[in-house]
Structures are given as C-alpha cells and as structure tokens.
C-alpha cells in the first residue's frame, strides 16, 4: 500500500481548517482541496474548495438528516451530483468508532479504529469523573489510526494513520486499484469526516 492523500488539520480560535494534498513519490505534493469550518458549528455540511481563496468549489459532504446519529452523509460535486456516501455504525461505535462506505444502502467498506483496546479504554475512562477529564488531555498525545476493510472479502484494503503527535496530520494509504475504483473526493471526504465528525 502506498500513500494516496495527506490531510492536515489546523485548529484556530474560531475555525478548523482542513487541507488535502496529493502524494507523489511518497511525499506531499499539490494542494487539491481546502475546507474551513467554524468551531462549535453543526457539522452536517462541509464544503471543499481548490484553495484558501474559496473561489472555486471542488466537492462537499452533507448529512441526510440534521443531528441524526444513524444518518448517512452524501459526497457531492459542485453541481450537486452524488459521488458516494458513508454512514456511521452507531452500535459498533459505542466500543470502537466504525464507519461504512456505501454502495446504495449496502456497506462495501468498513472503517474502524485499528487499536481496539485503546478505543475501549478511551470510552471507559470518559465515564470516570475527574480522571476522564485528564484522560482526554492525555489521549490527544496518542495516535488514533483507522483500518479500511472490504466487507465482501474481509481483507484490509487501506489505512488512515495519524503521522504526528501534536498536530492532526493524517495519511491515507491503499493500493492503486482500490483507490482508483472510487472518485478521490469520496476518499477525501471520508478522511476528513474521520476527524471532523469524531470531535477530535
């Protein structure tokens, strides 16, 4: 598997910014999408542009229903055409954050936290008064990774890994055939959602 996209998040006082870069020869290349989201705003819609000027839209994703934990998200092009969709698996996410990329209504790719023990520990500590607050601070230093699995073959087809400890810089890796089978904007939307919609 080789790196396909790099996602860098920058947190400021008022907004969260996401920059998505191409990868060439294993290294960060051109900026291909930029999004800016007001902090504490509802996250049912995120729009991506070619750059920081926000003059030209590239794609976006939006929730089917507002504030619906079971709802799906649609990835669309600038004309509103659907490129793909994904959905959070609410029950599985109680122990391990889990998402599905869909074909129609069918999950075809499952995305879940790689370290299942860490996922459970984080959730248990959240319920402990005071300790849970300190645990949240410590967890910022840990790297949360995700694994992509083909639901038909049960084979690992990709990884989404946090590459830095203090900054939210991520790398999406998979083989060429898997990546090329979908519009790159679907992968990019899913990658950003794994940060933006997880509340990290």
Question: Please, could you describe this protein's structure?
Answer:
The chain has 200 residues and is of the alpha+beta class. 21% of the residues lie in helices and 44% in strands. It has a single domain (2-196), classed as Alpha-Beta Barrel (Tubby Protein, Chain A), CATH 3.20.90. It is built from 5 helices and 12 strands. It has a 12-stranded antiparallel beta sheet with strand order 3-2-1-12-11-10-9-8-7-6-5-4. Helix 2 (116-126) runs antiparallel to helix 3 (131-139). It is globular and about 40 Å long. The two termini are 26 Å apart. The mean pLDDT is 84.
Defining key terms:
globular, twelve-stranded antiparallel β-sheet, 200 residues, Tubby Protein, Chain A, 21% helix, 44% strand, alpha+beta
Short overview:
It contains five helices and twelve strands. It is α+β, with helices and mostly antiparallel strands and 200 residues long. β2 and β3 form a beta hairpin.
Indicate the overall shape: globular
What is the number of beta strands?
12
Largest β-sheet summary: 12 strands, antiparallel
The SS-based structural class is alpha+beta
Average pLDDT, all residues: 84
**Number of domain units:** 1
Unreliable spans: none
Rg result: 16 Å
Percent strand equals: 35-45%
The number of helical segments is 5
From the N-terminal CA to the C-terminal CA, the straight-line distance is: 26 Å
């Amino acid at each position: 598997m080789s790196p396909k996209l790099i996602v860098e998040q920058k947190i400021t006082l008022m907004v969260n910014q996401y920059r998505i870069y191409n990868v060439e020869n294993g290294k960060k290349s051109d900026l291909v999408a930029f999004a800016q989201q007001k902090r504490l705003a509802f996250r049912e819609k995120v729009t991506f542009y070619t750059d920081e000027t926000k003059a030209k839209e590239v794609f976006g994703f939006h929730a089917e229903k507002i504030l619906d934990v079971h709802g799906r998200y649609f990835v669309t092009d600038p004309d509103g055409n659907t490129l793909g969709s994904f959905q959070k698996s609410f029950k599985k996410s109680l122990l391990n954050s889990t998402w599905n990329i869909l074909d129609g209504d069918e999950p075809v790719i499952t995305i879940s936290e790689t370290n299942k023990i860490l996922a459970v520990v984080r959730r248990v500590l959240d319920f402990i008064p005071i300790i849970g607050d300190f645990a949240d601070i410590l967890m910022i230093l840990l790297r949360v990774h995700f694994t992509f699995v083909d639901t038909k073959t049960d084979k690992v087809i990709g990884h989404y890994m946090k590459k830095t400890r203090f900054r939210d810089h991520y790398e999406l890796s998979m083989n060429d055939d898997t990546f090329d089978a979908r519009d790159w904007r679907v992968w990019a939307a899913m990658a950003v959602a794994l940060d933006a919609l997880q509340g990290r």
